[in-house]
Specification:
51% of the residues lie in helices and 3% in strands. It has 180 residues and is mainly alpha-helical. 20% of the residues are buried.
């Protein structure tokens, strides 16, 4: 198990004796004040500003003429997440990113909930790439790591925690979702 940084040399990568604790990572994710997704950078910036300032900037609304999406640089990467990368690459990636995959899915669920909250509060649509987000989430949900972990149950754990119902860690453990 690889990690980065250590006390003596914070820039060094080193092998961990034990795998990282996914339950701790998920709990830390839930405790964060803000979760942004780089795949949806522009929307993430708008959500951050909305949470900080309490108002939706005009350029964040999809229907706004000012919505130039200055931060949305795709650099020629295709939007079709279902065909990229290939199945063979997905298998290899799954093996080295098992925890990352589960954490990303939980982060996406939280991000989508934050978007929905901002849209409901402002009365405006701000997530212009929702279809792309749903494709991406579906792709991750079908990885071997997510199937083994039970990612389909994450929504029923993440959303109550966001609604102030607490007990995220205990719900995670009670469903046997604390490790892969």
């Amino acid at each position: 198990h690889m990690s980065c940084g250590e006390a003596q040399n914070p820039r060094a990568n080193y092998a961990l004796e034990e795998p990282p604790r996914l339950d701790v990572a998920l709990t830390n994710l839930m405790d964060a004040n803000f979760i942004g997704i780089t795949d949806f950078y522009y929307t993430s910036i708008c959500i951050f500003r909305f949470r900080r300032e309490g108002i939706l900037q005009e350029e964040c609304a999809c229907e706004s003429e000012k919505n130039l999406q200055l931060f949305n640089k795709r650099h020629g990467v295709p939007n079709d997440y279902t065909n990229f990368p290939t199945v063979h690459l997905n298998v290899m990636i799954d093996e080295i990113t098992r925890y990352d995959t589960v954490l990303f899915v939980a982060g996406m669920i939280r991000f989508l909930d934050d978007v929905e909250t901002a849209e409901n509060m402002s009365g405006r649509r701000i997530f212009c790439d929702r279809g792309d987000a749903e494709k991406l989430l579906d792709t991750y949900m079908n990885t071997k790591a997510c199937v083994e972990f039970g990612c389909h149950q994450l929504e029923s754990i993440v959303l109550p925690a966001l609604r102030g119902m607490g007990g995220f860690y205990s719900r995670l453990q009670s469903r046997g979702l604390s490790s892969l």
